[in-house]
Amino acid sequence: MHRFTFVLIIAAVILAPATVMHGTEEAAAQPTAATDDGFTFFVIGDPQVNIPRWGTEGTGKTIDMMNELPGESFPFGGEVQRPRGVLILGDLVDDLHNAENWARYKAFFAPDGKARLKFPVYELTGNHDLDLKNSKDAMSPIEKDVVQRNRQRPTKVSTCPLGYHYSWDWGPVHFVSLNVFPGNQPRPVYDRPSPWNNPRRSLDFLKKDLAERVGDSGRPVILMWHYGLTGWGREKWWTLEDLQALKKAIEPYNVVLILHGHEHAYRRHQWEGHDVLMAPSPQFDRNPKKPETISRPKGFVVIRVRQGKLEVACRMADGWKEKWSKQIEVGKKTRSE
Predict the structure, then answer these.
(1) Residues 186, 198 contacting (CB under 8 angstroms)
(2) In terms of DSSP bridges, do strands 299-306 and 39-45 run parallel, antiparallel, or are they unpaired?
(3) Per-residue pLDDT tens over the stretch 89-120
(4) How many whole angstroms separate alpha carbon 285 and alpha carbon 282?
(5) Alpha-carbon span 69 to 63, nearest angstrom
(6) pTM over 0.90
(7) Rg for the chain (alpha carbons), in Å?
(8) What's the rounded Cα separation, in Å, for the pair 212 and 204?
């Protein structure tokens, strides 16, 4: 739905190529040491491309902001590094039946960074990327293309049997992408049956992935999906059973951050003791009744992992906004500051 930009800095970390698990193929991840500068990544939510309705000028300008940011001063000291990638938290398009919208998205964002955005993207789907006309088992064209794009990401990913949900490692940090939400069954939306709202057994993938690729190592884990965990984003799109199952599934692990989109704004809160960040959409949409106006750039999140810290700063079109950090030591409890 909306746009959510998010920049995190994660501390002195070790950058390692992850191994691949496509379908039932499995291989243990073995992170290797990199540099003392750790790594940086950017985060946005909800590009929700709809060319005729509200245009994409603001998204294009936010992409230009991202491309130009490396080398600038970072609020926690030093300079913003070139990001390992940009996480995009769902609702990639607004109307998936207009092929021009998906073509514009792919002109903006590419798994290999060879698009208007000059950095690789690690995206997931949101509710607008699902086909409301489909049965619960049929994949939308966007879902099918995300499966293909998962094979092109520069950091090799481990996937579910469908090739849809995936995980990877940047240094000691393990990332898991779960698309619309972690669950095993389609869920009602606004209390109406919605067979299209299908998580495609992402909860099963999460459990298996964490058990096999993290285990009892205490490694930091960052989870990402689309639906929110507070307010409207939680009340209209989840069931209590989903939330209870999610809490139980991640309780044994060192989950240092949960990322989601869906509401087009930046917000930080906690859910069941876990730090949660909602990423902004990349643009302020124009009024569809006034097509002569143009959409405006909004922002994104920058995250750096370095020297045992996760550092997060929100970069909006008019400059740096909220910043926040926490310690993320492997095998130990984390502490927010």
Answers:
(1) yes
(2) antiparallel
(3) 999 999 999 999 999 999 999 999 999 999 99
(4) 9
(5) 10
(6) no
(7) 18
(8) 12
